[in-house]
Each structure stands twice: as structure tokens, then as C-alpha cells.
Amino acid sequence: MQNEKCPEIKMRLAILMTNTDESDFAQAHPKDGEKFTTLIQEQRPDWDCAVFSVKDGEFPVDIQEFDGALITGSPASVHDSDAWVAQLFELIRDMDRHAVPVFGACFGHQAIALALGGTVSPNPQGWVHGYARTDSVGDLPWCARPAQVGLYASHIEQVVELPEGAHVVSSGPDCMVGGYVKGRHIFTTQYHPEMTDSFIADLVEETEDYVGAEVTEAARASLKNTADRDVFGKQIIGFFEWATKH
Questions:
Q1: For the chain, what is the radius of gyration of the CA atoms?
Q2: Which of 114, 120, 136, 152 could be a cystine partner for 200, CB 3.0 to 4.6 Å?
Q3: Residue 238, pLDDT above cutoff 90
Q4: How far is CA 144 from each of CA 186, 202, 208, 239, rounded to the nearest angstrom?
Q5: Can you give the residue ranges of the Glutamine amidotransferase domain (predicted)?
Q6: What is the rounded CA–CA span in Å between residue 117 and residue 182?
Q7: 68 pairs with which residues across the strands?
Q8: Domain span including residue 48
Q9: In this structure, is residue 45 part of a structural domain?
Q10: Packed helices 83-97 and 107-115: angle between N→C axes, nearest 10 degrees
């Protein structure tokens, strides 16, 4: 099935926004719902994306009314005891039971793993921040891809044990589980395909006091490289089209 071209199908996706940042910095930039909508519509302009601020308790009434879902990143931890995190985990388990196609990025990647029985722990090497070159592991059944893909990153926790039935499909610096697939309905990345070049540059400066000078300097230097946004955007689109077909 490698390289098979799926016919373009107009889809309706639910974007489950988990980003809890309400700072002045956040207000001055597009929210994650808008970022992911843009990423999707760069590839499929006619796809409909409905944004749900799950971090504020706003969830879809019936997730099965959608063709699939995306779970965004967040400065929150998947180990937080907030009610919305527990509700999101229940929704993830429901989507898994009903094989609803779902893509998770960063927090979303970790939340899916933890909700389905995996383990998320602090990265022993500390922050992965800025640009990261990730290695493709094995094949994706819905598309061909290069041996390496560059993506933007900002995380200090990572998946260290996968849920039953999942397998690694990408690996990055200090992050063995850079992305995984489970069945025909789950695809994830620890990284941030939605971030633009300008946004990650601003984020690196904004977070200097939080992550520290050494991490920030390394991140600045890494940004001489740019992410393969179009390449990974096609992977996400291909996943939803393939999952829907199968």
C-alpha cells in the first residue's frame, strides 16, 4: 500500500486545543487551533476544522460526528490533576475503542500514550528546544517519507513506554519515541509541525528565563535550520485520508 494515492475526501476534523498559555505572548500570536487549521488547509483548503478549547472544558458533544481529531501541544503536563485532563483521557480511550482517527502533537502525543497505558517521564537530558532532526523508523503505510525530517520542538517530558499495540515510527534527539502509530487510527509526533519559522524564533526568545540561557543559546543556533513543514503536513493529511479509507 506504500505510495498508494488516496482520492481527496473533504473531511471535518475536531481540533482539541490543550494549550493553557494565556500570557501576553500567547495573545500576540495565533492560538494552536488556528495554527493547526492553517497547517491542514495548506494541504486541503476545503477541509473543515472545528476548534474545541478542551483546556477550558469545551469538548465535542459526539466525537464520532467528526472524521477525525487532532490533539495539540501545551505547556501543561499530562500528569496534571486538572479535570479537563482526565476528561481528555476518557475521550482518547473512547476514540481508541471506536477507532476514530486521531493525530497527537507533543502534549497530544503524550496524552494518547498515557491514557492508553503507556508511560511519560521527564527527559533525563532536559529540554529539547528549537529545531530537531528526526529519524524516520520503518515505513508509514499511507505515504513515502524521507529518512530524516526536521521539526520544531519544545518539550521536557517524553513517552518512554508505548501503549500496547503501538510502535515507533520516528525518533529524535534524546527522544527515542519521537512518534508512534497504533492500529489504523492513531498517529503522533512529540514535535510541533504547526509552528512556523517566525513563531519558534519568538518562542525561543520568550522562554529564555524559563528554560535557561544554555538551552536558549542552543535553540537559537539550531534555528539556522528550518522545519520540513510541508513534508510533515502531507504525512498528517495522508494519515487521515488513509485511516478513513480503511
A1: 17
A2: 152
A3: yes
A4: 18, 32, 37, 12
A5: 63-196
A6: 12
A7: 13
A8: 12-123+155-193+229-245
A9: yes
A10: 70
Cα–Cα distances in angstroms (integers) from residue 126 to residues 110, 149, 154, in the given order: 16, 22, 11
Task: Find all residues with CB under 8 Å of 167, minimum gap 6, and list them.
Answer: 138, 180, 181, 182
Tell me, what amino acid is at 223?
L
The percent of residues in the chain predicted with pLDDT above 90, rounded, is 93
> Whole-prediction pTM value?
0.95
Type and span of the H or E element at 119: strand 119-122
DSSP 26-71: HHTS--HHHHHHHHHHHH-TT-EEEEE-GGGT---S-GGGSSEEEE
Torsion 233-237-243-246 (CA) sign: negative
Mean pLDDT for 84-92 is 98
| Contact between 187 and 139 (Cβ < 8 Å) | no
In a domain, 97, yes or no: yes
- SS3 state at 179: strand
Would residue 6 count as lying in a domain?
no
Identify whether the C-beta of residue 64 lies closer than 8 Å to the C-beta of residue 28: no
* CA distance linking residue 119 with residue 192, whole number of Å: 20
The total of structural domains in the chain comes to: 1
CA–CA distance, 91 with 95 (Å, rounded to integer): 6
